[in-house]
Design a protein that fits this description.
Elements lengths: L54 H6 L1 H5 L2 E7 L2 H6 L6 E6 L4 E7 L3 H10 L5 E7 L4 E7 L7 E5 L5 E8 L5 E6 L5 E7 L6 E6 L2 E9 L3 H6 L4 E6 L6 H19 L1 H4 L10
Antiparallel strand pairs: 1-2, 1-12, 2-3, 3-4, 4-5, 5-6, 6-7, 7-8, 8-9, 9-10, 10-11, 11-12
Amino acid sequence: MGNKPWAGDDTTLELDWGARAPRPRADEPGVPQEEPPEEMLAGKGPPGDPRYMSVELRLSLEAVLTAAQVRMRQFREALEILIGWEGKNRYEVCDAEGRDTVYVGETGEGFASQLLRNFWPFYRARLECMTVGGTLALAVELPWHLFFARAEVSAWDGRLMGTIVQRFRFFTRRFDILSPAGVVMATVHGPFFKPWTFRILQRGEEVAVIRKRWSGLLQETFSDADNFSLDFQPACSDGRLRQMVLAAALLVDLTYFDNRKSGSGGGVDVGS
């Protein structure tokens, strides 16, 4: 028995490709965007932009990026306290509840680095902020200076996020927080009658405050290990500026409260 020919209209089997709607392009509005691989995010967007950080890095920096208060505590070893031998600067940064956020440590290992740190006047210090998982969050480099302190802040991918420069002022303390292009993002102002307080001002409005906290009689007397709190106003929502405020707190401590460098333990400075 032979196959009978199809009796229906065979035009119904034809696919009208020309009438089909074109496939939407990936860059059109409303089309879901695929997340690029994490290794491709380096170099994307403004330096330090939280949107281009890895998930692990954003979670580790959550307190620095969003919390109303962050605490910073410096570590000192017994040898440093007893004989004044300058070891590597180390800090712990945590949220208001004491949960660790990042650790800050000065680079340079070995006896040669210790000699340079203690005796070489042109020593260039580098502080690295690391997450609990060992990921670099940002780096702060402190070049040698004769009069005015300076810090160069790099984002997690190595790009310059900004600089912090000390300015000359009579009876007050002043730093400018600059963008990579040299534009003033904010200023750090230390009032004359509040030597442990540094206000962060943006367009004349206070957006954050760095405060040195009392560490106890023994620690304040025999050590220059310091405790700080960083209090952010709701208006300070820029994650990059918040990271720069953390770097400013490190520079403030090493400039005004490191007894081995300042010799004054935090007194009013007129531009050293």
